[in-house]
Amino acid sequence: MLSNTLMNKDPQQIPSSRVYGGESSQDRTQRRQQQFLDAGLVLFGTIGYRAVTVRALCKQAGLTDRYFYESFSDTEALLMAVYQHCLVKFQQTILEAISGLAPDADVRTLVQECLASAFTLIEDPLVTRVSWLEVLGVSPRVDQFYTQSVRQLAGVLLGILRSKYPTWKIEDAEGEILTIALLGAVGQTAIGWMLSGYATNRETILSAMFSVFLGLITLVEASQHSDAS
Question: Residue ranges of the HTH tetR-type domain (predicted)?
Answer without folding.
Answer: 30-90
